[in-house]
Write a structure and sequence with these properties.
The complex is a heterodimer of chains A (about 170) and B (about 350). Among the domains of chain A are: about 25 residues, no CATH class; about 55 residues, no CATH class. Helices cover about 35% and strands about 10% of the residues of chain A. Chain A has 4 helices and 4 strands. A 3-stranded mixed sheet of chain A has the order 3-2-4, with no helix packed on it. In chain A, strand 2 and strand 3 form a beta hairpin. Chain B is of the alpha+beta class. Helices cover about 30% and strands about 10% of the residues of chain B. In chain B, strands 3-4-2-7-6 form a 5-stranded antiparallel sheet. The N terminus of chain B is likely disordered. Classes of the chains: A alpha+beta (about 170), B alpha+beta (about 350). Chains A and B meet through strand 1, strand 2 and strand 3 of A and strand 1, helix 9, helix 10 and helix 12 of B.
Chain lengths: ~170, ~350
Amino acid sequence: MALQCSAPRIPIRVTSKIQISHQQVRHATLLRRPKRPYTFTQLVTLSDGSTFTHRTTSPAPVYKSTKDTRNTALWNPSSQKLLNVEADEAGRLRAFRERFGRGWDAGAMNTRDQETGEVKEGQEESQPQEDNLMDLISGYGFDAEEKGEAKGVREGKERSGKRTGGER
Amino acid sequence: MAASKVPSRLLPFSQKQKFVCLRCQWTTRRSASTYTIETDLSEDVVPDSSLLTPQPDQDIVTAWDPVQRSRNRKRQLPPSRYKFRPPRYYRGPLHPHQPPSPSSPNSRLFVPGPFSLPRLQQTYTSTLAPDLLSLLYTHHPPGTLPGPTGQRLRGWDNTSPYHKNRPLRGPRGRAVLPLMKRPITFRNIPRLEKIVVHHVIRSSDNRDSSYLHVAGMILQAVTNVRATVCKARHSIANFKMTKDVTAMAVKAELKGEDMYCFLSKVVDVVMPRIKEYKGVSGGSGDGSGNLAFGLQPSAVGMFPEVEVNYDMYPPKMIPSVDVMVCTTATNDRDARVLLSSMGIPFHGKHAN
């Protein structure tokens, strides 16, 4: 405190006057009106029939979409209808496979055809599906490998030493 | 107030005395309030006041009848006589004719709207925001404190005597500080802030301005916002770029209603129609809650507005478009949760 008191006071000059230049300045900023495109109200009809309106520049009053989030597998991962299942009613694709390979698939196709033919109860229905899945998981790689159709990539295979586990 | 503006020499003596308060008279110390006005006023100040001007004559007062005058008028006044017209130019703060504020409908800068409450915005306020809060909320039981946060600016280990009084260092490996992580409460649920849609023109197309025009038209049609042209920020002779002259990109900034309309359009209509679409890359994002994705020219052609008159645009000039979604989330993870709740699919490894 004593040191502060003994220190010489620096006079603070307050300049509160508004600086007005004596030269004439004729700046003028043009206030441009913002450009806005004309927008219409459009009724969007999605593929499942649901509708909503939105503002758009398109003059068409109604937009009907054939492909949108309601019928795309990426947005409906659990939908069986949208899964990419091939229609093979005449059995020609199956016949082709039986003759030229992918024998594991032919069996699965057989069981699937039977399933679709007769409706079973929930408990019984889940059982063959599980079997099929287990087949896919366990049998697929080995079967194909034995036949020489697929490269062997096993779960237990050691990775190259460059990236050690547990990094990320 | 009025009395204080009148020079004291015009006032009677009794009033002059009133200015000095009793306490000041007793102490005989001159304070700022006891200065007489005459001493303060310099010669430049005109002593006359408008308050001292005499009243108008009685004849003028009786003759003044604006209602009767307007009734006597045969035809209506021209609009210029009674309508306010904002100035075309802003001539600085000291000009007497000031433009009204941009929020006033009289202003030339006024943008009306919003004209609708977009579906996505309604969904956000009614459904998404509460869901996001419950997803992102971190609960600390009363009496417990959140764990210690890591240091933002790195200190110095005092291994050397020269470390004393050194300022803290920035984060390792980058120049900018990452944003602070705030706990998510009902006040700061992540929401959309703005969307910037832009198209960078290839350097080979720079000579031909038609690419610029087509890209601008398509951007305007798609976003409902007039596109602006971005000029080069640096002069680079090798690329024949001149600063502030060469056009580099076209962009449109969307906020509010347009933003929600555009995003819902992209999600509902455009993205599902892209062939073999996996979703937005999970690694996108700048680390502070802003995600970006691109749309190929084939996808841009699938917007309903472009599709309506697709033949209008030269097929090879249809631009690919970058969409930058700015959110109020402070990290990419929250922003990704927000956008995926709005329907944008993400694929691949999620960064951050």
